[in-house]
């Protein structure tokens, strides 16, 4: 009789252990392998850009567009004498960047001028008044780059990035790449932007991007698995106790 009690205790202990091992294996699959050590980098990309605060005010003095974001510009320049494509990655320094622009009922233009007019970057946000959704619809860039005679320019007016709802802000903590043309893309870092429907000087409720939600999913799964494990251990303990109790009674 007593052996069944011991036996159930063994089951109660081994089951969580097996589960823990399985869980650990699952986690090991999720975590990325360590980054390979690069001995000789062909060119060094700049570090993460600083996060800037850009604000547009409407004619009556209220803030009509607010953006917190770190921006990194990625230019690909074909260099004829060297017969190859050069990559130029520039961080937008918020300390030397001015925000200009205008807010209209269905569109907002944010123009960032940085580095003593060497780079002009324009973002156009469009509001769909039927669906009350907004998005980044157009990006224009003009930049004077070293190793280039003519200024670099690129434009795309059929973009669909940073989608949000009127009265709310768009947020993405993760790094995101906004591809504008074959030769130009923007890496964004920790974006929070609201181009329409600001209440006072504040952001509305934030709508998180998919990348952030995917990132949050892993802790949620781990949390749920751990909760399940605790429940199993508890059940095993209760069953074990009941059995050993019953064992004592029959003796
Ligand atoms: C300021 O102008 C915007 C539109 O340009 C309007 O939505 C807002 O209500 C105005 N605010 C005040 C205080 O008049
Ligand atoms: C810049 O763009 C090129 C080509 O699209 C890409 O290979 C490279 O990884 C990008 N660099 C950064 C820092 O995003
Ligand atoms: C953009 O890239 C293409 C090839 O990918 C090249 O032919 C073109 O000259 C580039 N434009 C600029 C402005 O560098
Ligand atoms: C430039 O590159 C192309 C292909 O990438 C090659 O066919 C051509 O011979 C190269 N020209 C020179 C001068 O290196
Ligand atoms: C911008 O200014 C702040 C404080 O004035 C400084 O800490 C920061 O390093 C500057 N950023 C850059 C990229 O120069
Ligand atoms: C606005 O949204 C509605 C509903 O989603 C859609 O049918 C319409 O085509 C959109 N308008 C524009 C200009 O994109
Ligand atoms: C950026 O805009 C300013 C003001 O309009 C202008 O003076 C400057 O030449 C522009 N820079 C480039 C690279 O086009
Ligand atoms: C503009 O962006 C759209 C959507 O990302 C892309 O399909 C299109 O090729 C781009 N146009 C140009 C000229 O790069």
From TrEMBL:
A cellular component annotation (GO) from this entry: lysosomal membrane
Compartmental location: Cell membrane; Cytolytic granule membrane; Late endosome membrane; Lysosome membrane
Gene Ontology biological process: establishment of protein localization to organelle
The Lysosome-associated membrane glycoprotein 2-like transmembrane domain, residue ranges: 218-249
Ranges for domain Lysosome-associated membrane glycoprotein 2-like luminal: 49-198
Membrane topology type: Single-pass type I membrane protein
InterPro entries hit by this protein: Lamp2-like_luminal, Lamp2-like_TM, LAMP_CS, Lysosome-assoc_membr_glycop
Chief location bin: membrane
Signal peptide: 1-28
Chain residue ranges for the region called Disordered: 33-55
Segments traversing the membrane: 216-239
Disulfide partners: 172-209
Origin: domain of life: Eukaryota
Keyword presence, Transmembrane: yes
Key words, A-Z: Cell membrane, Disulfide bond, Endosome, Glycoprotein, Lysosome, Membrane, Signal, Transmembrane, Transmembrane helix
Assigned protein family: Belongs to the LAMP family.
Name of the protein in question: Lysosome-associated membrane glycoprotein 1
